[in-house]
């Protein structure tokens, strides 16, 4: 195996790194190779955000900025991008960036260890919102900072800092210069090709991806690395060869069709959720509760689906939405309902030369009633104990269409066929809801673990059907996820 | 919201003390320029260590096979108990903890040895390849089982006043019950780390992320069998401590030093987060049984209370933690005739340790639970029952440990919070709203805090400092306290700047270093500023006094007539700049540096009977919290928080508000989402942030208002201030009481059996009664 050169732009300069092993993380490279120790390791699993850095890629003539976790990011994956760490924001004269100055003024740092990560998430918000003329509300700050943990401050001053950045003197990055530099790197990369002997394969086109997948079936496929990254940091795995799908142009697109949208497997969770919430706004909060922003910015919908964790939150929803998955190989393609993709605990039907290509999600239909419920110990950035998504369409009070996806209740993400059967063609009544709840109870047998007991999971699953019933009856203020005190308090 | 400027007392506004100065390291924090131990440039030849952990909760350690590990890339050595040149038992007070496991293992995660390699990942990979041969033995994993088997790390302690049995028997009303309250992982963002460098002639330099450099020095010297004078420990700052680096940092430093001693190379040991969870102690989980008798007003007449502290496998700080729980079982209330029995249980899990509040929260929560239950049993507002039980000012003012409460401000403080938070109206509104809400129920509670300030071990209440004035007039201060984010160094600089009449920026603080100020106590018990701030003040005062005498000699006046202010020094005859004076004084051979030493007055107590005056003073506060619960799922949220807290005259309102907010949210985490789960094999299943959930941004209510009580400390304390590190943590008991209030509203039952933490699952369970 050969090691290809990693090239990226930092502080306006080209950085070239050679002989970097495929599983080496960006955080290791920063701290150990580049002595950039300003970026911290808090957990090594993308849950605390202390290692947050910002990446930028060309996107329709501009730069697109994303805050991501450096600890579970493979260093090779930033080839062709621009990188900012906490040490790259202040001016040469030491003038702090608004993201930094606002934190200082708001007393947003105490021990200072989470601070570099918060500053970088704030920098991402500054680039994506403040410079676009969009103000930062407390709600937006909470949402976009939910992947950063602080143990000292109680967050109030940090949320204040987020809202104060815009009032400070404006600081812009030299985007045109960076774009020119990136163009140069990427032209060189396209010319070189993925190179079969490289230990890190990052093809740029779909045909190239399929060819490499067939030629190197043993290569570890990565599509954002928000789970595989933990195999490296926590299970100490090493890879002979890695096949990264995230640079494949065809798979980075969301394509609209008449009856569905097709989400490429390399589309980030952030972009995929944006597309889905655009069609079904009631899902916005559910998506905001999926991990933290740096994970959603790095992880892909295709990766989440292919990984197939029984506690992943996209799948129950996608199953309820009737999503299909399209598998690709040099031999051609095939398509199936998502629930048929899984064969067992983290096992699926993919052949050694196959890859997840697209996830096809039907557009909403008239009269659809859809809810996705997540039960976890913490509201944000937590993994579900139970996840339940229900999509229903009534005609004259009778259940016409029903699909129910469930997570945390079996070895795979699952479709609740019995519960659906109990409802389909039946009048939608309280008794019907109770029958569906009972059917759910008999078709799944969840386990007890550190997230919840089996008994709790089963009970809540049934109670969530009740919540769904109440919501279809127009009951408001029955879900704490969207509960706002100001709206419910009596005058 | 919570603008610190509101709390600048005008009298103090002249100098640095009283101002909301930004943290002395804030600009470095935000630029990534603040150095933590793992950021110190590595000395050439540095090796990295990783721990070998027991996978068995209790057993005989029959063999360690490191053959495979030693063959791996980069691996240099394996260090085991037999490689310890000094005492194989750590130099703790109880002297009961092997440095590395020898013939037995006592919990899953116990460190048997360390692997040393060229890189961190090489060491970690190899550590997992070391095979341990362990013959399992029966383990005790449950605290009540430990009580039953009388498995204790230290003997039980009983504190008794009057005749509680008769008090209970004669009371018109009685309640009895039990409660379980979980522990808490510190989750300092910077994990445990130590870096040991062998120097010339048998000397050592240790970088340690520690709240107690002196203890690290003592432990390392003891394990290496060298005098303390050969070991120098340095800590510029920690990335969070919260008690978790009071003793626990010592283990890491000792292991690194042993590895360095064996390999003759510098060795760094930085724990992976999962290992940190598995190896280090946490807040003690507690179990309680209680029996209480009370009158029609809800006033406690007799109380019998059993506190079982789950200490884990060794004593560590469990003795003083359990003592503090006993001292705080009264919280703010006169308990009448009372007996408190405290068990310090040995179980086969991590050795639990200091954590913000140090047993205080575990003592208070059971009494707050009792009062909530009493109120509901009598159909009264819990606030009225709490008020009825408060310590009096002139009478009913002696604690169960015979200390008179002399500084009680809770009557006016609670009255003001009740009014500011609009408690009564909201309580009525919530009841009305709940009646019409089918799924969501709201709850509200006000709970007070009275927290004793001083180390209960009286001898720890001492501190030293050094002040240096250099010939250019710049000032450097050093003291025995450590910076973990609380802003101690900032406050000390403010105090010294004022003492010398200098701008804040002229005073700089350096890393805590056992080579500068020796024998310092841990930065703990909220006492950092009280002790070190005073010691630094005394050091600066001596320098000022010498300079004043020098000026007085020149100008023919008395030293008291020389004024130090605004960077200038003025006597009756002339005014000069500080810099000019310093330069003159130096040329005249005046000593420009000094030490300072402080010991807390008035305190004493008998550690056998737990009676006396263990605390110099009390810090007070109260919180009003409103919550909502979902009766279908048990999910819950904090909706509104109003806090009124007593920090005396604040030395720095910004930092103090930071401690109050941060402490409250941390306490909220303890009582809501932070759940430690051990498997039936004794493995901590929640050993990473993916499964152990501290509060995140979304858990903080938008309405989160802090106000400071305006009075100074009634005791003579630095700047009239009060300690602030721990007391606000316990304000979060109001969250848990509000949740119980909501559960009662939903269930209609007076008794609410809600264990802590109030996870969604525990709330749903409580709803079913």
> Rg of chain B, please?
27 Å
Report the strand count of chain B: 29
- Side by side, the strands of the main sheet of chain B go 3-5-1-12-9-10-11-20
Helix content of chain B: 25-40%
Low-pLDDT residue spans of chain B: none
Through-space gap between termini of chain A? 71 Å
Largest sheet of chain B: 8 strands, mixed
Structural class of chain B: alpha+beta
Principal-axes shape call of chain B: globular
Largest protein-protein interface: A-B, 95 and 98 residues
Report the biggest beta sheet of chain A as strand number plus sense, adding barrel if it closes.
5 strands, mixed
End-to-end distance of chain B, in Å? 39 Å
Unreliable spans of chain A: none
How much of the polypeptide of chain B forms β-strand, as a percent range?
15-25%
Shape of chain A: globular
Please count the helical segments of chain A: 17
How many beta strands in the DSSP annotation of chain A?
19
Mean of residue pLDDT of chain A?
Answer: 96
| Secondary-structure-derived class of chain A | alpha+beta
Helix content of chain A: 25-40%
Number of helices of chain B: 19
Name some characteristics of this structure.
heterodimer, A: 491 residues, 5-stranded mixed β-sheet, 17 helices, B: 769 residues, alpha+beta, 8-stranded mixed β-sheet
Overview of the molecule:
The complex is a heterodimer of chains A (491) and B (769). Chain A is α+β, with helices and mostly antiparallel strands and 491 residues long. Helix content of chain A is 33%, strand content 20%. Chain A has 17 helices and 19 strands. Chain A has a five-stranded mixed beta sheet. A five-stranded antiparallel beta sheet of chain A has the order 9-10-15-11-12. In chain A, strands 16-17-18-19 form a four-stranded antiparallel beta sheet. In chain A, a hairpin with a 2-residue loop joins strand 13 (342-344) and strand 14. In chain A, helix 2 crosses helix 3 (115-128), helix 2 (98-105) packs across helix 5 (156-164) and helix 14 packs antiparallel against helix 15. Chain A is globular, with a radius of gyration of 23 Å. With 769 residues, chain B is an alpha+beta fold. Chain B is built from 19 helices and 29 strands. In chain B, the strands form seven sheets. An eight-stranded mixed beta sheet of chain B has the order 3-5-1-12-9-10-11-20, sandwiched between helices. In chain B, helix 10 (360-378) packs across helix 11 and helix 10 (360-378) packs parallel to helix 18. At the A-B interface, helix 2, helix 3, helix 4, helix 5 and helix 16 of A face helix 1, helix 3, helix 13, strand 27 and strand 28 of B.
């Amino acid at each position: 195996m050969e090691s290809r050169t990693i090239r990226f732009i930092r502080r306006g300069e080209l950085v070239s790194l050679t002989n970097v092993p495929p599983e080496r993380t960006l955080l290791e490279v920063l701290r150990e190779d580049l002595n950039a120790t300003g970026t911290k390791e808090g957990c090594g699993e993308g849950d605390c955000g202390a290692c947050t850095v910002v990446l930028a890629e060309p996107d329709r003539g501009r730069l697109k900025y994303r805050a991501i976790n450096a600890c579970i990011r493979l260093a090779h994956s930033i080839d062709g991008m621009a990188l900012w760490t906490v040490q790259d924001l202040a001016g040469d004269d030491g003038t702090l960036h608004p993201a930094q100055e606002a934190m200082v003024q708001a007393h947003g740092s105490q021990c200072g260890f989470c601070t570099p990560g918060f500053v970088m998430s704030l920098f991402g918000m500054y680039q994506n919102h403040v410079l676009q003329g969009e103000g930062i509300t407390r709600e937006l700050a909470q949402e976009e900072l939910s992947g950063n943990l602080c143990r000292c401050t109680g967050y109030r001053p940090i949320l204040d800092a987020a809202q104060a950045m815009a009032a400070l003197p404006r600081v812009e990055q030299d985007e045109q210069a960076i774009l020119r530099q990136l163009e140069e790197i990427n032209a060189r990369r396209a010319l070189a090709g993925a190179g079969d002997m490289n230990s890190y394969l990052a093809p740029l086109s779909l045909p190239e991806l399929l060819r490499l997948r067939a030629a190197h079936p043993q290569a570890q496929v990565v599509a954002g690395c928000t789970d595989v990254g933990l195999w490296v940091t926590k299970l100490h795995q090493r890879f002979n060869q890695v096949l990264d799908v995230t640079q494949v142009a065809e798979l980075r697109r969301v394509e609209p069709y008449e009856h569905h949208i097709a989400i490429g497997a390399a589309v980030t969770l952030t972009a995929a959720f944006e597309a889905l919430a655009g069609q079904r706004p009631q899902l916005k909060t559910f998506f905001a509760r999926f991990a933290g922003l740096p994970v959603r910015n790095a992880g892909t919908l295709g990766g989440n689906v292919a990984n197939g964790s029984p506690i992943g939150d996209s799948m129950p929803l996608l199953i309820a939405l009737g999503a299909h998955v399209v598998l690709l190989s040099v031999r051609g393609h095939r398509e199936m309902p998502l629930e048929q993709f899984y064969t067992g605990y983290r096992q699926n039907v993919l052949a050694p030369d196959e890859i997840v290509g697209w996830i096809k999600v039907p557009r909403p239909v008239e009269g659809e009633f859809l809810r996705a419920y997540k039960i976890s110990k913490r509201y944000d950035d937590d993994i579900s104990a139970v996840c339940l998504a229900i999509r229903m369409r009534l005609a004259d009070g009778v259940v016409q269409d029903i699909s129910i996806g469930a997570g945390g209740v079996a070895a795979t993400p699952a479709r609740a066929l019995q519960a659906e059967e109990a409802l389909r063609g039946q009048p939608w009544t309280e008794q019907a809801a109770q029958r569906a709840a009972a059917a759910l109870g008999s078709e799944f047998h969840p386990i007890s673990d550190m997230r919840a007991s089996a008994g709790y999971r089963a009970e809540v699953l049934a109670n969530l059907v009740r919540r769904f019933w109440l919501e279809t009856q127009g009951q408001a203020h029955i879900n704490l996820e969207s509960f706002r005190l100001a709206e419910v308090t009596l005058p | 919201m919570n603008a610190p400027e509101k709390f600048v007392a005008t009298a103090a506004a002249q100098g640095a003390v009283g101002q909301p100065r930004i943290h002395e390291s804030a600009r470095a924090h935000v630029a990534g320029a603040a150095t933590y131990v793992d950021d110190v440039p590595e000395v050439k030849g540095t090796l990295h260590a990783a721990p070998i952990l027991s996978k068995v909760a209790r057993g005989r350690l029959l063999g360690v096979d490191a053959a495979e590990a030693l063959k791996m890339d980069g691996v240099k050595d394996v260090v085991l108990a037999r490689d310890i040149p000094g005492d194989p038992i750590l130099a703790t007070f109880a002297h009961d903890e092997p440095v590395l496991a020898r013939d037995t293992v006592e919990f899953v995660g116990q460190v048997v040895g360390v692997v040393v390699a060229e890189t961190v990942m090489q060491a970690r990979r190899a550590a997992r390849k070391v095979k341990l041969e362990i013959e399992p033995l029966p383990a005790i994993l449950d605290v009540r089982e430990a009580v039953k088997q009388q498995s204790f790390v230290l003997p039980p302690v009983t504190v008794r006043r009057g005749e509680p049995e008769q008090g209970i028997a004669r009371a018109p009303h009685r309640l009895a019950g039990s409660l379980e309250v979980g522990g808490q992982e510190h989750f300092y963002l910077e994990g445990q780390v130590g870096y040991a460098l062998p120097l010339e002639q048998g000397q050592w330099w240790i970088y340690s992320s520690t709240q107690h450099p002196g203890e690290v020095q003592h432990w390392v010297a003891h394990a290496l069998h060298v005098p303390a004078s050969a070991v120098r420990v340095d800590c510029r700052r920690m990335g969070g401590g919260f008690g978790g680096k009071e003793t626990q940092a010592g283990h890491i430093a000792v292991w690194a030093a042993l590895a360095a001693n064996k390999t003759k190379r510098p060795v760094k040991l930085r724990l992976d987060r999962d290992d940190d969870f598995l190896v280090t102690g946490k807040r003690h989980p507690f179990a309680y049984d209680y029996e209480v008798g009370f009158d029609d007003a809800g006033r406690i007449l007799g109380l019998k209370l059993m506190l079982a502290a789950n200490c884990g496998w060794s004593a560590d700080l469990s003795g003083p933690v359990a003592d503090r729980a006993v001292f705080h079982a009264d919280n703010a209330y006169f308990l009448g005739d009372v007996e408190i029995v405290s068990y310090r249980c040995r179980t086969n899990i991590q050795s639990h340790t200091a954590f913000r509040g140090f047993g205080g929260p575990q003592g208070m929560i059971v009494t707050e639970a009792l009062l909530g239950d009493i109120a509901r049993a009598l159909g009264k507002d819990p606030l009225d029952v709490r008020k009825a039980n408060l310590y009096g000012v002139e009478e009913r003012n002696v604690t169960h440990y015979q200390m008179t409460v002399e500084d009680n401000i809770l009557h006016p403080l609670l009255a003001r919070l009740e009014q500011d938070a609009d408690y009564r109206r909201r309580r009525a509104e919530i009841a009305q709203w709940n009646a019409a809400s089918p799924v969501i129920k709201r709850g509200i509670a006000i709970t007070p805090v009275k927290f004793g300030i001083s180390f209960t071990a009286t001898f720890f209440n001492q501190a030293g400092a050094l002040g240096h004035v250099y010939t250019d007039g710049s000032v450097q201060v050093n003291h025995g306290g450590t910076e973990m984010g609380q802003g101690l160094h900032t406050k000390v600089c403010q105090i010294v700047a004022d003492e010398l009449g200098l701008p804040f920026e002229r005073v700089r603080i350096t890393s805590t270093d056992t080579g500068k100020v020796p024998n310092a106590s841990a930065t703990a018990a909220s006492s950092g500023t009280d002790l070190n701030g005073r010691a630094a003040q005394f050091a600066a005062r001596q320098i000022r006094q010498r300079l004043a005498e020098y000026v007085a000699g020149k100008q023919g006046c008395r030293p008291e007539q020389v004024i130090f202010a605004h960077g200038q020094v003025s006597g009756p005859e002339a005014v000069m700049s500080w810099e000019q004076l310093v330069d003159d004084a130096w040329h005249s051979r005046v000593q420009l540096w000094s030490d300072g030493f402080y010991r807390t007055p008035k305190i004493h107590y008998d550690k056998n009977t737990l009676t006396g005056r263990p605390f110099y003073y009390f810090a007070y506060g109260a919180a009003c919290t409103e919550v909502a619960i979902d009766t279908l799922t048990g999910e819950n949220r904090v909706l509104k928080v109003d806090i009124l807290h007593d920090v005396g005259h604040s030395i720095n309102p910004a930092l103090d508000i930071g401690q109050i907010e941060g402490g409250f949210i941390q306490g909220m985490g303890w009582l809501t989402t932070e759940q430690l789960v051990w498997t039936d094999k004794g493995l901590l299943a929640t050993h990473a942030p993916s499964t152990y959930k501290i509060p995140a941004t979304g858990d903080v209510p938008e309405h989160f208002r802090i106000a400071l009580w305006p009075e100074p400390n009634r005791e003579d304390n630095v700047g009239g201030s009060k300690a602030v590190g721990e007391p606000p943590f316990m304000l979060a008991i109001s969250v848990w009481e509000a949740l119980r209030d909501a559960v009662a509203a939903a269930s209609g039952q007076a008794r609410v059996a809600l264990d802590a933490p109030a996870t969604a699952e525990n709330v749903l369970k409580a709803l079913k009664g």
